[in-house]
Amino acid sequence: MPTLGRMVPVLTYQDIPAAHDFLVHAFGFVAGGVERSPDGQAIHGEVRVGDAPVWLHRVTAAHHLDSPTAEDVANSGLFVYVDDVDAHYERARTAGALIDSAPVDQPYGQREYGARDLEGHRWWFAAPVHAPRS
User: pTM score, two decimals?
Assistant: First the structure.
């Protein structure tokens, strides 16, 4: 069986530069830049989450790709682990992320919250809940 390599999430946006800047500002991702066609149209963007890239793809009928703004349907999302869920939540909320759920301790041992970016992609952020020391 072939060995699997890394996985790169691809998210489709109507406005790649705005999405790129939002993800960097609101969620603290590392900027990877925006590539443009010779006529100046944004065709690809990238941000990094830790060591993992996230590619920002343009809306294109040829590839049957559209932004969640076309139809508000929950069909996927991305889960990111952070070191301080509450601080991350405040950063995202202050930057204008649509908050789906505030930080809450889950029975499966992590604290998490849900948010959407400026075009509606769903994101969840979490950290392990550490048991209090006796």
Answer: 0.86
CA angle 61/67/72 to nearest 5° reads 125
Does domain 10-61+77-128 fall under CATH 3.10.180.10? My reply is yes
CB atoms within 10 A of CB 112: 22
Q: What phi and psi values does residue 65 have, to the nearest 5 degrees?
A: -115, 135
Look-up of token digits 């603290």: 28
User: Are the C-beta atoms of residues 134 and 90 closer than 8 Å to each other?
Assistant: no
Write down the pLDDT at residue 3: 75
Residue-level pLDDT at 131: 59
For the purposes of burial, counting CB atoms within 10 Å of the CB of 127, is it exposed (0-12), middle (13-18) or buried (19 or more)?
middle
* CA 107 to chain CA mean position, Å: 24
Which pLDDT score, from 0 to 100, does residue 62 have? 86
Helices (H) and strands (E) in the chain, counts: 2, 8
**What are the structure tokens assigned to 131, written together?**
């048991």
E strand or H helix that includes residue 19? helix 16-27
